[in-house]
Structures are given as structure tokens and as C-alpha cells.
Amino acid sequence: MHRLHLLLFLLGCAGDGSPLDPDDHRVYHVLFIGNSLTYVNDLPGTVARLAASVNDSFEVESVAEGGFALIDHVNGKSDALQVIQSRKWDYVVLQQGPSSLPISRDTLVLATQLLDPYIRAAGARSAELMVWPAADNPTAFNAVRDSYQEAAQAVGGVFLPAGEAWRAAWVLYPMIQLYASDGVHPSELGTYVTALVVLEGITGRDVQSLPPFAVAAGHQLDTPPGVVRLMQRAAHETVARFPSSAQGSALPHR
User: Fold this and answer.
1) What is the rounded radius of gyration, in angstroms, for the C-alpha atoms of the chain?
2) Which region holds residue 29: left if phi is over 0, alpha if psi is between -120 and 50, else beta?
3) For 89-105, how does the pLDDT look when each residue is reduced to its tens digit (9 = 90+)?
């Protein structure tokens, strides 16, 4: 079992771009609840590092346990409920497995509905992070998307279409490796693309404005800048295709 509480407060660094006006600086308090698809390659920390590169700050914490569905967190197998209640949040990002089957979709929706009152009481909105099916089941992407959209709609939450961004990335660059070798977890570049979607979906910031280098798992990746720009384009265009009312609904702290 993997247990992770990660608290990052990353203040802005401009990367290879120009610093933003200090008045543009914002701090987002974001809790991630999920499983190994969140903690492999440190998705929360990757989002925080990307935000810092454009002078935003994400203060993030994560409750992620290997193999967990959201209902496991609801049923007290982790301390997710206590962490939600421990402070004010802006967003709580919810993730489980692909959830393409009807029974897993029902469980995803139910768990989201059970968590949402706690999330709202903490001043936050639920954000459903669409993941991806296993590499050997590529026809399930639509069902995965529909499950996470349904869960978001059930609570008036935010839909973060990371799995759709993966598909958009393959259209732009078919040889890109977004799966790890096990065909289930994300590669480091897969985590990077996912983090782009989370960042833009929450802040509304066009991720094409980020520096042309990829990061994940606490380090910079050896990915050519041209490929990074394609991944940023894929993430941006995907978020635009699945508009969210996230921006302005939970006011970030300044």
C-alpha cells in the first residue's frame, strides 16, 4: 500500500519566459484523492511545478493508495475524509481506475456524490480527473470519458479530460509514449500531459504559455521542445473542447 501526503508550496519562477506582474500571482489549494495513477510520477507535484513556472502557486496534498477506488476512501480505508475536513481547499481532484464498465461507473458516481458534501463544506469544488483505459483496451476511451463526465455532472463538478488529451496528443504525434511499460500507468510524459490538463482546467491559464520543456517525477524530461509544444497544444485544445466552469467558482487565495 502506498500512502502519500505531499505538501508543496511552490512560488513562481519564470522558466525561460518573462515573470508575470506580482498582482497576477495566485495560490491554489488543491487536494488529490486517488490511487497509483495519481502518485506514480508524482502528478500533484508535477502540477505544482508547472504552475510555478508561470508564477502561480499550487499548494497540494495527496491521499493516494494503490489499487483504491474512490469508494475505498469514502469507507475509511484511508484518511481522505479527515484530510478534506482539515482545512479550506479550492479544488479536490478525484480519480480512480478507468471505470469504463457500468458497475465501476456507478461506483465512481456514488463515491463522488458521497464525497461532495465534505468537499463543499471545505469551500471547494469536486474535479473529476478522467484517466485512460489499459493500453490493450483502446476502444474503451469513450466509456472512460463518459463515466467521469457523468460523475462531474452529478455534483456540478469540474471535468478534467486527461484521457482525451492523450488521444489528442497521439493525433499530433502518433509515436509519443504516454503509457509506462506495464500498459496501465502513465509514463513520465503521460503524467506531464495529465498535469497540463489539470493546470489549465483549474486555472484557465493557456498551457501553451508554459516554457517548452516537460517535467514529471521531480525532474526535467529529455523531450525535444517541439514535442513539448505539441503536447501543450493537445492539452489546451482538449480543455477547450470540454469547457469547464471551474474558473471563478472557487476563489483562489492571493
Assistant:
1) 17
2) beta
3) 999 999 999 999 999 99
